Fold:
Amino acid sequence: MAITGIMRPGFIQIRVLDMPAAIEFYTKRIGLHQVTEGPDGRVYLKSADEFDHHSIVLRRADSAGVDAAGFKCVKDSDLDHYEKRVTDYGFAVDHVKAGEQPGLGRRIGFTIPTGHRIELYAESEQSDPKPRTHNPDVWELEPHGMAARRFDHSLLYGPDVQGNLDFFEKALDFRCAERVDMPDGVFAIWMTCGMKAHDIAFVKYPEPNKLHHVAFELENWQSIGHAADILTRYDISIDLGPTRHGITRGQTIYFFDPSGNRCETFAGGYTYYPDIPTRTWDETQVGKGIFYYERQLNDAFLSVVS
Amino acid sequence: MAITGIMRPGFIQIRVLDMPAAIEFYTKRIGLHQVTEGPDGRVYLKSADEFDHHSIVLRRADSAGVDAAGFKCVKDSDLDHYEKRVTDYGFAVDHVKAGEQPGLGRRIGFTIPTGHRIELYAESEQSDPKPRTHNPDVWELEPHGMAARRFDHSLLYGPDVQGNLDFFEKALDFRCAERVDMPDGVFAIWMTCGMKAHDIAFVKYPEPNKLHHVAFELENWQSIGHAADILTRYDISIDLGPTRHGITRGQTIYFFDPSGNRCETFAGGYTYYPDIPTRTWDETQVGKGIFYYERQLNDAFLSVVS
Amino acid sequence: MAITGIMRPGFIQIRVLDMPAAIEFYTKRIGLHQVTEGPDGRVYLKSADEFDHHSIVLRRADSAGVDAAGFKCVKDSDLDHYEKRVTDYGFAVDHVKAGEQPGLGRRIGFTIPTGHRIELYAESEQSDPKPRTHNPDVWELEPHGMAARRFDHSLLYGPDVQGNLDFFEKALDFRCAERVDMPDGVFAIWMTCGMKAHDIAFVKYPEPNKLHHVAFELENWQSIGHAADILTRYDISIDLGPTRHGITRGQTIYFFDPSGNRCETFAGGYTYYPDIPTRTWDETQVGKGIFYYERQLNDAFLSVVS
Amino acid sequence: MAITGIMRPGFIQIRVLDMPAAIEFYTKRIGLHQVTEGPDGRVYLKSADEFDHHSIVLRRADSAGVDAAGFKCVKDSDLDHYEKRVTDYGFAVDHVKAGEQPGLGRRIGFTIPTGHRIELYAESEQSDPKPRTHNPDVWELEPHGMAARRFDHSLLYGPDVQGNLDFFEKALDFRCAERVDMPDGVFAIWMTCGMKAHDIAFVKYPEPNKLHHVAFELENWQSIGHAADILTRYDISIDLGPTRHGITRGQTIYFFDPSGNRCETFAGGYTYYPDIPTRTWDETQVGKGIFYYERQLNDAFLSVVS
Structure:
């Protein structure tokens, strides 16, 4: 297919309360590598299986949560294209200069109806460690910790999910792979810009701009089990899992970083194509949709965010 | 991303010598379902996890091999678009009427430099079994046999691989995820039209229009092991595996259907994006590229085709 | 080693409220085979990987629960040996004639301090399906459902766990692989007669002769995940899991048969030898011992028995 | 059961040509830990999941191969018992003083019909790392490399396999779980002293006292795949696999340490009990028995030993 425009979730910038604890957690437990620390103290991380400069940005702050979710576009002119699309849609667009995050080119940013900041960019330097491209091994560096292969997606909470659905479809060319419809309207949406079952998801919540979780892709259910062993061994707080989502079919654990940001290890999930019908869920089965084995929501899913 | 044009491998039509034996093999062992038999005796099969009418077409003939590899496009007008692109490239395009394969809309077809027939189409009815789309379970029908989740890709052999590379990139918008370069030129290419590491691949071979294998996606390495147990239990001839490909990283077994067509069960494989560099292999490491654990080609890989 | 005396859990006889529902559950979901139905209506089941005549006995009754747990000894004279040991210990022993369960030889029986009936026997006919012994395949019959490989163990609830510990060690030559000690005494014990981390386990409970669960061995964590998919697909009530036990390290799901008897699918678990120290747990970590990922007991674990 | 006498394979002492290369291989790749180096330069290794002082002994020598296979007995008096049994059988027994290997008590030794030295001992100190026994985690030290959980068994080559069979059954209380019978007599035997499908195995070979392989237990097929990734990544020579044995059902890879000693990673394998019939294989299916997927022996299996 001709792949154009927004390619994938490229980075997420999250706030942490204790930077050394966060670095230990994301490098030793999740299995990422630290690429660099910026002059303002932000720390940049990546999986050894990612080519781009970084995918996780940690910012020291007094409250946990998300600063911005960045999506990478195919080419620089896509930024102009989407700036016009977003502006035409009625949202303000601002500009971030190349280098504001080390290794990244210029970005455009805007606020979506749930109150979150989304950024688009097209240029990233590559950084080490990364896969070799000539006669490569399956991996160069032996995977460690949970062996996360990539930053996969985020799930964000905010009030106007219907607004996000409309905006992501009309202005950003995303598609809705799955949705939960409650009697009072859309409750949650799983949006994809490619062939993954979701690249970003939103759940309805009274407060805007909340982070539910940042997800890392693992290889398979066996890896999910190993991640669970790590979580208990190092006394890391598990929210739920190992389990499966009915929605996306992903195999999962929810747990918390030392600052209280929820993380997910995610494996599986079906392959999406634009001709796949949107899967819909209603209030009678939403529990099974979210937690396929438990078949009911836990309180924390609905209420604990950062 | 904006997904346009050619989406994915949609079907492959292969020739079999003994139709009942083929049906038993593809339904009971590979784990597909028979959708229907056409008036001309062709038999149409699919995985229960595929929505479209069928993905495998079996045609009774006196020699095994491949008739055509069909790719599904996003919309009908894509056929006009690619007809022009292919014609402009200098290749003749013919037309197949809707319904020539049950459930499929009109197709266009053309012959590529390795001598194979490629077809494009945009319309397919859905057939049962298929996933539910409202409050769906992970599966409706318990998977059976090797539990193939989809027809994944084909690997075809023919003389002018360089010609295919040029054509698929320029006329069909495919990208080359990996390639093997021998001292006398390109030896093999893995081409993708989406986010899979390959949707079709070609290896250089003196005779045109040869089939190396038809691949079915399984869930993971555990599934590959179960497939191997099935192969030995039912005395099905294994070519090689279980092993891994260095190229695409896929976990794999090669084996033969009752007519001598090579099949592959394939799991894993990295996620491709258009900004991922083409991985290249040279003659010193081609063995490791093809069979990562054995690190050398076997004779059958290079010589046994149908 | 010289293996003598009591070899392994051989059968368990449980009570079910609805025999057709129970048969469907244990054959189609757990993956057993029905061997025969006795003249008194009891139904005998086994895994295709077990040689002996049966391992699960279902008896139609008005309340769920366990009638007896049977252990197989190496040779017939072991029954005389253990009859003397048990009698010397001070417990009454009764005799069950050969054929009372089809295919089994004579049994001796006695009541243990928690109020459960334990039986010993040495002779069992073999029944089909069973593994071949000349040039065997890994399996003859393709595994189905959860693909249980054997009846693995039972966990029983009753008041005098300390009494059981003493009796199983002194009269039956079992060893205690793990134990939970509460401030008021031993709370739970995992007893082994061989190299599995447990062959029978007991937890303290006010009422005697209660069944906590009957466990079936699956291959690995991947099989546990598949079992969970089956449980939700067929709306079978899950108690907890997939998770892991800290005690035994087993990977597990607890769920209920149609009569309310709790079942477990169990995989993993370490290899025990007589020189391995008894692992001990105290009240501060008992939650982690039972449910390693959740790190706390759920109410059902302590209160729901049959 | 009453477990008496010989419990399990306790250690194997092998000869290596390059000690630093051997240490790197067994610690970084296989995943063992070095416990200590003795005053004579022998190096002692173990898995972090083993309690005993060591299970692998490396001795620097000019040729690779095996010095002795040690089996651990339940209690010290078992040594006297087996000394009498072996002497009565007609074989000479010698004595090794406590401390000859650090941490081990006294040993008795004798030469078996295939020319190998077998030793028995009953006392071993524990060494770190080892599992905790109070409120233990599933593991204390994160597994690394291939994550070997224990030294599992050895396969030895020599001329008089029939003699070994008779001796191990009559003098050492082992049982034969599987055997291959060729037209000219027994070709290979898999002997167990407990509930594993084999604790030691022998294959007929013209020269005495040869080592075919030393096996390490991994968790499952997924672990076998990861081990294969490690082997190729570090350019370690693979003999065959990943594959499965028909005999024992074990999932396996054969590969070579830097001195040319063949190693195996082994997972799965059925549970053996004394009432399980000996599985037999004949010359028509021996290939499938050894390599279940390939269904034929490779040359190296029959000829490459150390």
In short: The radius of gyration of chain B is 18 Å.
